[in-house]
Amino acid sequence: ARQWSPIALAFLGDAVFELYARGVFFYPPAKPLEYDLKTKRLARAEAQDFLLRLLIDGDALSEEEVSIVKWGRNAAYGNIPTRLKGKGKGGHGTYRNASALECLVGYLYVVDRARLQEVMTIVMSETAIEGALALSSK
């Protein structure tokens, strides 16, 4: 999978992550706007940073996956959202961790869908989502 750049894998991982989030929020039935708002909050850098730290702190990743995370985190990403710029706002670290999670998700989508499901089960658990949404402003 290293034939793709970490940025390309993050691009794919962003879409895969959002699909999982949409699936989680699809039940119970609600208004489409509610699905959209929750999905966008979970896909924000602050929430994804939290979820990546949850995986790392919980020793849920293999050595290879940690290597992919580091590779993704160290890639040269473009613009950081304005809300993350400035002192005390998380900035580059938060954005890079979010991109690293997306890189991992994209990588697993390409090389090991069963493992992707295992990882996404952890990050899409009710407890993980509650913690992530608490950090991600509306």
Draw up the topology in text.
Blueprint: H1 6-25, H2 32-42, H3 45-57, H4 63-73, H5 91-111, H6 113-123, H7 126-135
Helix pairs in contact: 1-2, 1-4, 1-5, 3-5, 3-7, 4-5, 5-6
Q: What would you note in describing this structure?
A:
It comes from Ostreococcus lucimarinus (strain CCE9901). Residues 8-111 form the RNase III domain. It holds the Pfam family Ribonuclease_3. This is RNase III domain-containing protein. One of its GO terms (molecular function) is ribonuclease III activity. The protein has 138 residues and is mainly α. It has a single domain (6-135), classed as Ribonuclease III domain (Ribonuclease iii, N-terminal Endonuclease Domain, Chain A, Orthogonal Bundle). The protein contains seven helices and no strands. The chain has helices at residues 6-25, 32-42, 45-57, 63-73, 91-111, 113-123, 126-135. α1 (6-25) packs across α4 and α3 (45-57) crosses α5. The chain starts with 5 loop residues before the first helix and ends with a helix.
**What is the count of distinct domains?**
1
Compute the number of strand runs: 0
- Count of separate DSSP helical elements: 7
Low-confidence stretches: none
| CATH C-level | Mainly Alpha
Structure in a nutshell:
This is RNase III domain-containing protein. This protein has 138 residues and is an all-alpha fold.
Keywords, separated by commas or semicolons:
7 helices, Ribonuclease iii, N-terminal Endonuclease Domain, Chain A, mainly alpha, 0% strand, 70% helix, 138 residues
